Protein 1
Amino acid sequence: MTRCTFFLIVALVLLAGGLIGASFLLDQPVEQGFLAANGGHWCHSPLATAVSRYGDWPELMLLGGAGYLLARRARNVRWQRLLLSAMIASTLAGMAVNASRLTTGRTRPRAEAPQGWYGPQRNGRWLIGKADFNSFPSGHTATAVGFAGVLLFGAPAWGGIAVAIAGLIAYSRLLLGAHHPSDVVAATIIALAVAWVVWEFLGKRGRVDVGQRE
């Protein structure tokens, strides 16, 4: 690794940390704005609920798997590699954020418990797997952005559409009171980093085995 590359990585890490830190300043005003616009309640729109429900990891894997099979049938090696890389990035991004989300004990905006960070336990009870205390970062956002990020790096025209869809998924999580803005920002940054690494070192360099030759 050259000195320039090292300093670039350090600068990007510091920038990412600064953006995540600054995003906490958005939590209260953004959430108050959503509540005020919805009469003091969190949104229960069927559309937002559907986007949130079907924008999670299992559905992304089904979509990616179907696309991969179509690309394989068409003998399109590029899209086989893109979609496999997207599925890998989505999975790794989800795993990365879940390691934090399941242990920080941060309450969701809509949780009835007092807002805060409780860690893995509260009053002697484990909070791992308790949805109201598993907010930071956003798992939905991480898996969606991880998937879309690879497409953005590998096929920008289609990637732009995928990123817009991932943005809608993240926005639905905010509307439903499932996540704070800082949860979404942190997940987005982590997922984009994972997507770049997966595409750069696996997909782009042909290290994802698609079972066919160029």
Protein 2
Amino acid sequence: MPLRAPHQGRRAAGGRSPVQYGPRIAAIIVYLYIGQFLSKNRTAQTLAELFGIPLSSGTVAALTARAAGKLDGFLQQVREHITASPVAGFDETGFRVQGTLHWVHCARTGKYTLLMVHTRRGKEAIEAMGVLPSFAGVAVHDAWAPYDICTGTDHQLCCAHALRELQAVTDLAPRANGAGPPRPPKHSPRCKDWPPRRPSRAGTPWTRPR
């Protein structure tokens, strides 16, 4: 057994190199970068200003990638919890990956959120996410057609889209004198959307039984 110099202490738990950031700093970095959507540079700047810990944007990226590599079991647990929930929300939005359009798919409850980036937006991505194909509760979404492939699920239009549909019905309803809907005031935020668009799924019930 090699001799230890008198001034050399024992390595802290989790330490694998002479100099490295501990688990609490790593957790703060991941929280700011991923949870609060700060850029890598702003995350590094925040750590330097709040804690006096200078680090580079590359370190932020490296620690985040290391944390992501340990989430396999956790992601499966989140997927199972959402699948077993009585109600869950689903959505998707465009996202650029190295200049190419991808899609961020989201499944969430009041406690759990699962995000997945996929090259496709429809059925292929929904199946790859692994929630809706086995989901038996009420799926709240924007009534986008691919969600209807899950026939064992009750579907409900989300409140934000329900309000949009009601606003569209109001805009399209004829006035009392039969002259059609009034044009919004010139400086109204809705003026740029004139003429009003017809509801995308007019007449579709907000909740569709199985």
Protein 3
Amino acid sequence: MKVLGIFGSPRKGGNSDLLLEKALEGARSAGAEVTSLRAADLDMSGCRECGGCDDTGECIVDDDMQKVYPELDKADSIILSTPIFFYAPPAQLKAVIDRAQARWNRRRLSKKTKHESGTGYLIAVGATKGKNLFTGTELIAKYFFDALDMSYGGSIQFSSVDAKGAIKNHPDALDQAFRLGQRAGTP
């Protein structure tokens, strides 16, 4: 099993980072080979909607996303971890997600209708308690995984967590992340 963790926060060492680190620890404990990337460290643009991938399923924009595509392609499971910014993922993570348009076109061109390539999971952390705090981000994650021909394996979501490291005051949250990682790392 190959598990890819995508750190979505621009703040290193924050709550969503701590949860993803725990999830990846869980995946390793299940015997998975784990890799990760940090969206904020990528030198890339968002999707330009240039149409370059329409006929080939390959993005023609030459930037750091070209290093991400092979990681997405070989992953059996992907765990996205993100804080919530205005009821959505931060721009850096959203750019990675939007650039999966090329993989959606690849899937469309292959005429695949079933999810055959693995499973995606979401870890989300928000500072407020809004009723729909995670709704938009969860829909975005589901469609990202769909574009990658992956099924959606579920999420863990934590509201009212803001200060850097505050998730450590919720030991059950770290346990939940570990268990999610074990699920992601189990064939």
